Amino acid sequence: MLSIIALNGEEYADALQPSAVLGIGGGGIYDAMFARCAIKAKAKAIYTWNTRHYNCVARTSPAGLRADWPTAYCVSALILRPCAVSPA
Known about the structure:
This protein is mostly helical and about 90 residues long. It has helices at about 10-20, 30-40, 50-60, 70-80, and strands spanning about 45, 65-70. The protein has one domain (about 10-85).
């Protein structure tokens, strides 16, 4: 299920503070905002091809958020729900 998760002004500012302390700038700010939204949504993982952008945020997450490659999700989906993927 997909849901839209928005940050209010206070949550946005709270996400920027650790980014500034860690020296995250530029496009990394967007990654920090995505991670904050994932934490707000109580997600357990962010699936991305660029895990290094999220590993720093994930390590500092009180929620235990992790960053995984999309293939990790695909493999677990095949193992847990093999009928969810149609054969070619």
